[in-house]
Amino acid sequence: MPEAPQPSLSRPIPGQSLTSELGGRPWQSPPQYATVDDAMDWYLERFDNEEVVQELMSVIESGIPLSTLANSMQLGAVLNGVHSIDVGVLVMPIIIEMMKYLAEQTDTEYKMGDEPEDTDRPSDAVIRSSLNSLKKQRENTGEEEPEIEEEETMPEPSGLMARRA
User: Fold this and answer.
1) SS3 string of the chain?
2) pTM beyond 0.70
């Protein structure tokens, strides 16, 4: 009879991050690039790689906004000690424009992340509030409440791990 696999116990213990030496993490040291120009050169090298661009276009095509991708990229670079958070905030609009340019060059549909939501439909909170006030009015007047069949709508899955139906 084969042996059962042993559980992996190589995960960090709670509070372990508080026991490392000061300056031992990449974000606790001076950044590799201290200026926006130097950081942009680093990003341009990444965008010059065909594999990176193809993966980026597939992520953009899945519907993730460019602002979210740019924020993730700059935060990852901050965590790796590439640049500081303030340089990352200043670089973000440039990263968004670079991704927008690449998406337009490859005919990839993209979302910027600042599009207004559908304003023709009232929000769910407004609908619930209206229904509650209508119920209270009917309770006060003694009318019977008509049965309303509500459709159960499941939110569309989104994100990198969502399955497509």
Assistant:
1) CCCCCCCCCCCCCCCHHHHCCCCCCHHHCCCCCCCHHHHHHHHHHHHCCHHHHHHHHHHHHCCCCHHHHHHHHHHHHHHCCCCCHHHHHHHHHHHHHHHHHHHHHCCCCCCCCCCCCCCCCCCHHHHHHHHHHHHHHHHHHCCCCCCCCCCCCCCCCCCCCCCCC
2) no
